[in-house]
Protein: Cytochrome P450
Organism: Microdochium trichocladiopsis
Amino acid sequence: MSIVGPYCTSSRINLAQCELYLLVSALTLRVLPHMELFEATEKDVKYDRDMFIPLTKSSSKGVRVTIS
């Protein structure tokens, strides 16, 4: 048996990835209603420029949230 487990070397990797996606989405849907922006404004969330991926202003500290 592999050190990392049976899901990494066979066709079951797709099943494992699907389970991870479901777990992340379920946790997000449970936590999302309890999240509030912390020391952030709409300017920190809006796109400012596009360099292959959308980016916010360089002076932005990112989006921080609190979970109540």
Notes: The chain is about 30% helix and 20% strand. The chain has two domains: 1-33, 38-68. The mean pLDDT is 80. Residues 38-68 form one domain.
